[in-house]
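User: I'm new to structure prediction. If I give you an amino acid sequence, what do you actually give back? Let's try with this one:
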Amino acid sequence: MNVLIIEDEKPAARRLNRMLVDLGIEANQMLHSVEESIHWFQNNEHPDLIFLDIQLSDGLSFEIFEHVTISSAIIFTTAYDEYAIKAFEVNALDYLLKPVEVDRLKDAINKVKAELIEPV
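Assistant: Good question. You get back a string of structure tokens that encode the predicted 3D arrangement of the chain. For your 120 residues, that looks like this:
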């Protein structure tokens, strides 16, 4: 699974990636701002899954969706619960509150795997 983490707090990004590695998944790329993310999406193949923080150093991650169309599965990871409805409006598959718990992370990944696997 091709995974991208967008998180402005580098320790939080590394912690999430360590948790994913423990589950047999590793992020291929980590981005840290709205501007960097927009540029990256415009110039790279989109991943299967994005872990997306809401409050980034240069704005809200929802601004990314104003500039690029993203078809990847999205799991929001944030300390703020007030953005949950807006997250699902951009087709998020899950919304994890920080600090992310391993069991919730497993459940979210299982949702993504079920979504990505087409029935035979």
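You can read the tokens as a compact description of the fold. Here is one thing that stands out. The mean pLDDT is 94.
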